[in-house]
Amino acid sequence: MHAIGIERGKATPQLLEVPRPEPDEGEALVRTLRVGIDGTDHEVIGGGHGGFPPGEDHLVLGHEAVGVVEEPGDTAFTAGDVVAPTVRRPPPSGSNEYFERGEADMAPPEACVERGIDGAHGFMAEYFTSPAQFLVRVPDDLAQWGFLLEPLSISEKALELAAASRSTATWAPDTVLVLGNGSLGLLTVAMLDDATEVYCLGRRDRPHPTIELLDSLGATYVDSRETPVDEFAAVHEPVDLVYEATGYARHAFECIEALAPGGVAALLGVPGDWTFEVDGGRLHRELVMGNRALVGSVNSGPRHFEAAIDRLRGLPAGFLEDYVTDLVPYREFERAFEEGDDGGSDGADGGTVIKTAVEFDTHEER
Ligand code: NAP
Ligand code: BGC
Ligand code: ZN
Predict the structure, then answer these.
(1) Which amino acid residue places its CA nearest to atom 11 of ligand 2?
(2) CATH class of the domain comprising 154-296
(3) Which of 18, 100, 211, 292 has the maximum number of C-beta atoms within 10 A of its C-beta?
(4) In ligand 2, which atom is closest to the CA atom of 105?
């Protein structure tokens, strides 16, 4: 079967011919419908994050997937069920306490592998297999958008963690600053429809499709070249919640200055090493004296995928059609990875594309 992946020594994704996987006991064989692409995929392709499965010279990409059960095997699924896989699996050393508790998303990197990202092949292939406990049933009518459940679940978890850190007081984020107008930032802005004011920070000139999308969502675009994050509160207002999705390491600290007392910042970006100066004393004091919090959040579990199903249904009308700008047949996969095409940080000028998915099967016959 065909798969799309990276090969050692090659700079761009390749069409690979790989054996169709055979499901083991407790696993289902899934026929892939669509696989989304995000900033992490570009980081993996660029070599800044993740890695090959042990002893292998290629990595099948793709961690935002939806598919249809082809062979349920001995699982409780039925052929034809639409499913979305979670990303994390036990490491080669075997299962551990995180997986035994059903909390793989809380495992440190050495206690898990991530399909399509780090140490395990992903879902960007005509078929994939998965143990049943890592497959979430998706309502049939959501099949075409099911690849968005993984990124939605990422924000479900981060928002849950942020709220949990505020559990000693009444807290509902009325004002929110989302850092990053990439695929994760924009999806999160669309999820925040309970907030009174949502700001989203980018570094693009108008006209730009991501800024038009923000306008249509009623959010306020903030250009980081005019208003750096540490000056945001003075120009606009201190916010209850910051959601960082730039991967720009200074934002993790500058955002403390954007928080209102009692506010929390959820950090999602995965930067490389970078040494820079901050006023650590001031930021420490602001955190303590203002009851402010910083929480890092990575990955998500089945519970967050379930919440994402409801969230997907509740997204503003017309958003999905504007957000998913490119569905690329898998044989034309090169187009899906062109720099900047997902609004990603690689392309200074960007393209007209916001969110891309690679399509294996249109599911139209259903
Ligand atoms: P993306 O599409 O590359 O988006 C990142 C956005 O941040 C881009 O639009 C980029 O703008 C913007 N940006 C970067 N530096 C900026 C700056 N200094 N000022 C203003 N805007 C800036 O990536 P994504 O898919 O949205 O993901 C965002 C980050 O979250 C990545 O680091 C990714 O690895 C991470 N992530 C983490 C998790 C998790 O579980 N923690 C899950 C998914 C993603 P330009 O395009 O104009 O450069
Ligand atoms: C994925 C997560 C993963 C994280 C870190 C994100 O893009 O959506 O599932 O845990 O990257 O590798
Ligand atoms: Zn991702």
Answers:
(1) 40
(2) alpha beta
(3) 292
(4) 10
The per-residue pLDDT of the chain, averaged, comes to 95
> Could you state, in order of their start, the residue ranges of all structural domains in the chain?
2-152+299-359, 154-296
Q: What is the CATH number of domain 2-152+299-359?
A: 3.90.180.10
Phi, psi of 282, rounded to the nearest 5 degrees: -65, -45
Ligand 1 close to Cβ of residue 155 (< 6 A): no
**pLDDT class of 116 with cuts at 50, 70, 90:** very high
- Report the 10 Å Cβ neighbour count for 7: 15
The predicted structure's pLDDT at residue 364: 55
Mutual angle of helices 209-216 and 183-191, in 10-degree steps: 10
Can you tell me which atom of ligand 2 is nearest the CA of 39?
7
pLDDT at 284 over 50: yes
Residue 38 alpha carbon to ligand 3 centre in Å: 6
Q: Give the pLDDT confidence score for residue 339 in this predicted structure.
A: 65
Using CA atoms, how far apart are residues 74 and 80, in angstroms rounded to an integer?
15
The structure tokens listed for 338 are 């062109």
Q: Which of 323, 353, 326 is nearest to 340 (CA)?
A: 353
